Amino acid sequence: MRKRKLKLAGIAAALAVAIPGAIAATQGNALAIGPDLLPVTVSNNSGRGEATFLYILGQDIRPGGKLGYVNASGTFVNWPAGSNPPSPAPDVAIAGPGNGGSVQVRFPRHISARMYFSFGRKLDFRLTPDGLVQPAPWAGADPNRDILFDWTEFTYNDSGLWINSSQVDHFAVPHAVSVTGSNGVTKRTGDPVNDGRNKVINEIAAQPAFARSIVRGPDGTVLRVLAPGKAMDAGLMDPNYLTSYINTAWNSYTGRTLTVVPRVAEPNRKFFGRTSGNNMVFTDASGAQVATVAKPTTSNVWGCDGVFNAPNTPPFIEPEIKRTLCTALVRGTLGSSTQEPVLDANQFYKNSAPNHYSRIIHNNMADGKAYGFAYDDVGGFESLVHDGDPRGAAVILSPFGAGGNPPVTNPPTTQPTTRPPTTQPTTPPTTQPTTPPTTAPPAGGTWAPYQNYATGQVVTYNGRRYQCRQGHMSLPGWEPSNVLALWLPL
């Protein structure tokens, strides 16, 4: 699997590529609403006695904005210049809450970021000339390998707050996230069931193919459970775990048709696939060929990369088809269904080589929602909350033992059907600088909503150039400066 360093500009916050559809809270917010400094309460219900440390690291998403951090008062500060080899970043830790306590931090408007939280030790961050080296504890040489830590992801802009928990890379510190709007309604997700952390660990330990993905510290504490792709990269999981299933699923469409309906809001936009050798060939309703997808490897499926990377050729149908196929393989529905995506969770993870990691995490969440993989938002199964006019938010570190049922809150309002992306599914982070492309990426003109953009495409927005990180349909509120998970500033 090809690797690159995931700069903090690329993690930028709210939420893996969503299904294009109707516009909700992102539309019509021409004026800023919500406070310029959004109060966020961080509560520690973990039951652990160590000191905790918080870090808010991200990017100012206004034109010309840079990478930086947020201090305890809510001020965004640009990072100093880094070097090669990477130089230590300044200590920007914010004192976190002790067990049973809480602290308040502030999210400034116009930021996409991660908030890290660690127990017992501060995290080790380094700076290169082109970005921040993030922790990658699945890599043997990472200095944060033996630290218990995790993160939440968010974007706060004039269209509101998106905040989510994520298990795309690992399951370490279960935590809930919530947002309270100007109407007083609080929306909350990410709570585990009672004793949920132990249940996840024990249930994964009972799966022979996944048991080695449980990583313990020197004192025996379970630090994290690695997601399958990260475990495979670390040599802790069979790189051919999915091979037999992929072959069977792929070949099942040799004599029958797979119908892909990639946009929930456009049920008549359909594409039709048949397997021919190692390729699945798709046509549109007129019979014209629109995409060819090569049979993936296990690594391609866990990372939704490789053969699932979308080419930069009109009419940009292939990215949506590939996203749908990868989701189907991760959830195990490809081969048993004649239409994708399958949106009935009762049909997930029942294939011959199930993704027990994602299955077990979802089963141990109070509302069943999690980011078990990068495209878990297909069908709305992700642990995300959003409010277009927020007045406060919270991150709650959940109990490591018994306890953890969420409190009763106000009934949730209808959530938006579209949301900006957060975690990148295509390539995992390493501690090495990104290799620049050897050829100039194709130009795409001026950014506009309701356009299909493909990976590598370059657009101009507010006088600045951006390169597309993930193929997607653009929507109002997803301007390149607002959604750094989709667009790399050049």
TrEMBL record:
InterPro entries: CBM5/12, CBM_sf_5/12, Glyco_hydro_64, Glyco_hydro_64_fam, Glyco_hydro_64_N_2, Osmotin/thaumatin-like_sf
UniProt GO MF annotations: carbohydrate binding; hydrolase activity, hydrolyzing O-glycosyl compounds
Pfam families (UniProt xref): CBM_5_12, Glyco_hydro_64
Gene3D superfamilies according to UniProt: Beta-1,3-glucanase, C-terminal domain, Carbohydrate-binding module superfamily 5/12, Thaumatin
Residue spans of biased composition, Pro residues class: 408-440
Domain GH64: 35-399
UniProt keyword list: Hydrolase, Signal
PANTHER family (UniProt xref): GLUCANASE B, PTHR38165
Name of the protein in question: Hydrolase
Protein source organism: Spirilliplanes yamanashiensis
